[in-house]
Each structure stands twice: as structure tokens, then as C-alpha cells.
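2 proteins. here.
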Amino acid sequence: MIPHTTSVRHLGGYRLWITFNTGEAGEVDLSDELDGPVFGPLRDPNLFATARQNAELGTVTWDNGADLAPEFLLDRARHYSSGE
């Protein structure tokens, strides 16, 4: 099964609660991933808070056009929940 996100909720800061079509869900902290011309602007808390589910892409997107691969997000959710 190719993973994709099914919902996203902003938790505050640079954290999101994401559910996946695999039946998994978890918190994702992106504070250490917000660099460069596309993701750097997401350090603005108001812009980061625009995170939303994009059904067409099957992942999280932001108002500036940024998006992350759902596989990456699932890996981050698994990593966070394992306490690593």
C-alpha cells in the first residue's frame, strides 16, 4: 500500500497530528526541517498554521505551495511515537 495522508491538524508550534491511509496516526514535529527557499518561510508561525490536507496530492500542503512526501511524514510520525 502506498501511504498517503488522510487528515492533518495543527498542534501548535511546528507540530502536526497526521492520520494516514495505513490506519496509523501520530504527531510530527517539523521544527528541524524548515530550511531553504520552500520550507524556510514556514518558520513564520502564521504560515505554518495554514497546514491542510490536500486530497489530490494525498499529503499536507501549505499556503506557500510547500508540501512534503507522505512517506516522509509517516516515517517521522513513527519515529516520534517510538521516542527515538
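next one coming up
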Amino acid sequence: MTASTQLLGQYRAVLAAGEQMLDSARDGRWDAVAHASLRIKSMTGHLAGKVPEQVLDTRENHERLAILKRLIEIDAQVRHLREPWVASLDRMLSPESGNRPRNPLGGTAIRTD
């Protein structure tokens, strides 16, 4: 097994654990979510310190980046399932909502009252 195959296999295993974590969150099995989270933390610890660009070719690196993007999406979905109030806060604070006060200098102002 080549180093690139092994490294990409580790990323795929993390993704599979992430998908399982999301399924558990959708089912409301928060103990399983916590267990999957610990597994993912352990697996990503093995990836720390490795420089993928030195091991992976362009195609493999694109797959690695797609896996990382999916893991970020999974994390966001789990957070929204765990804390549903965050979705309403996101909607309220989005620029399209019109609820954010405007700073005359062009940025957004924060109310302190």
C-alpha cells in the first residue's frame, strides 16, 4: 500500500465516521454522536503533522479537499440539529434579513442598548 493510498484511506475513514455521526444526530442518538466525535478526534490526531501535498497527487488532493468540505458541512448540520435555535439566529443575523442595523461607514453596527 502506497503512502498516498494509506493517507487518503484515513481521510475516507474520518468521512465515514462523520456520516455515521450525522445519522445518529438525525435520529437523536446523542450518546452515539459523542462516541463518533471521539472516534473522529482520535482519527484526525493520526493525520496531524502529515503534509498531504507531499504525498498526494493533484487528483487525490482534490478528493481530500472534497472530504474536508463535506466534514465541515456535516459539522454544521450536527450543530444545527443539536442547537436548533442557531438556525433562527443565523436567519435573523443574515444580511438579507434586514434586521441588522447599518453603520453609516458601510459596515454593520452592533446595538448595545
